[in-house]
Structure of Transcriptional regulator, AraC family:
Amino acid sequence: MNQISALPNPLEILFQEYNQGRIESVGFRSFTLHAGESNSYRTLKSALIVPVSGRAIFSFEHEPFIAKRGLFLHGCPDKTLTISALGEQDFHYINMYYENDRPLLFSHKLKNPEQTFSILEQILKLHPDADIRSQYQQEKLTEEFFAQIFADFQPEETYNESQIMNILLDFIAEHYAEPLTLDALAEQVNEKAGHVSYLFYKYKNIRPIDYLINYRVRIATELLRSGDYTVTQAAHEVGYRDACYFSRIYKKRMGFPPTRILP
């Protein structure tokens, strides 16, 4: 007798892509389609699509999906997409775009719709190009958004790891100028140092020390661009007492010396 193998779960495939660092947001956008209107275009990126209000049909080259509050859709690039608003209510939705060529098309229920909407509203209010703290806040909220998307798939593991990462990232944001070590980070979340390294690789694809250095360099860049700090002063502000050592680290990370940033 021939056995029919189970079809792969597209959400599980997406979760594996996320764990392997292949899903990284390149932006969030909010859209409104007025009642009775349709829009058609060729997709360029993969997207997580979260309907906020109203109803619509998303048709990816004649493969239709109902879009309504409480669901999210996943779209992929290089497809002709037609969106048609249903009923007499405007259709409002939010997209998170990322670069990935895997042809996944599916819809799935949100486990905590209201919490997901709250996270998305906070993200849309941010201006990540404004300063390092806004960029960090968006990174943190984006991780929370992913935790909501994958809440039905290993929900306890996803939630707990996401919470641990948020604590670690908050701690670095508050104490980046201090002589932080891997052991000090591990103490903050009562975890082993090896597990903290694993979480940074899993969620950020980077070592904790490299994340810390990158964070310091980004803060120093903003200080230097302000025109209110010398290289030595900026180095001290981000935790380096030796300005020459700081300059070497800066050039290694940025490809040019910090003096180039000075106005």
Remarks:
- Residues 38 and 84 are 4 Å apart (CA to CA).
- The first helix runs from residue 10 to 19.
